[in-house]
Write a structure and sequence with these properties.
Layout: H1 6-22, H2 31-51, H3 55-63, H4 71-82, H5 103-125, H6 128-167, H7 182-190, H8 198-210, E1 219-222, E2 230-233
Antiparallel strand pairs: 1-2
Helix pairs in contact: 1-2, 2-3, 2-5, 3-5
């Protein structure tokens, strides 16, 4: 059995309470809840000592106060609190304990630390009040992230609309043939891309070939004098 030092249990309790406060929740005045969290931290260390195969490595990691001061472990604990229902993240602590671990233990240190953090996660979410608070914070953060994503998509759509409007010149529908008569314009408006003569068909083919479209748009050109003649340009 491996017992976590009181100083470590108090330190982890402080990290958890601070996380709750930043998330808009608070258990600072709930003595029963704080005691339950502290007991969960202590029991996680006991479980790690009992369940991990290398008892010496388990003791070296949990009892050593240095473990909980490592940036990688501190970040992992924050991730654990942010995502309490996901498996504990991996950590790299091998080099940090090189002086006190054997070569074989050093190779196992990272996996052992993750094993311990997973047990810690299980014990912490087993505290009902902490479980509920962590769940609330997770839901709030998820909702905020969803709202930010929706706002970002809306802005992108508006930017695209604005960009498309700016790129399209006024009266662009008459640029290909600025000398159309009013009758021809009326026919063109009623029948999209219907042209009356072979010359205009050939001219349209040349224009359609040279103009760059944002998207490929299939166009059908009908020769009015021969309704059975269809020329397609893409």
């Amino acid at each position: 059995m491996s017992l976590v030092p009181t100083s470590i249990a108090e330190k982890l309790l402080g990290v958890i309470l601070d996380f709750l406060k930043k998330g808009g929740e608070n258990l600072i005045n709930d003595v029963a809840a704080k005691n339950a969290i502290k007991k969960a931290i202590e029991y996680a260390a006991e479980r790690f000592g009992d369940e991990y195969s290398d008892k010496g490595l388990a003791k070296a990691l949990v009892v050593n106060t240095k473990l909980h001061d490592l940036p990688s472990v501190q970040n992992a604990i924050q991730t654990l609190l942010q995502h309490p229902f996901d498996p504990a993240p991996q950590v790299e602590v091998e080099n940090e304990f090189a002086a006190v671990l054997s070569k074989n233990q050093k190779e196992l240190a990272g996996g052992a630390a993750q094993f311990y953090l997973e047990i810690l996660r299980e014990e912490l979410i087993g505290v009902e009040k902490l479980h509920d608070k962590l769940k609330l914070i997770l839901l709030k953060r998820t909702a905020e992230a969803t709202e930010r994503t929706a706002d970002g998509v809306e802005k992108l759509v508006e930017m695209q609309k604005k960009s498309s409007t700016e790129k399209k010149p006024v009266g662009s529908e008459d640029i290909t043939n600025p000398q159309k008569s009013s009758t021809e314009k009326s026919v063109s408006k009623r029948h999209e891309y219907k042209l009356p003569t072979p010359n205009l068909i050939l001219r349209f083919q040349k224009i359609a070939k040279n103009v760059e479209f944002d998207e490929p748009v299939p166009v059908t050109v009908l020769w009015r004098s021969n309704p059975h003649l269809t020329v397609k340009a893409a």
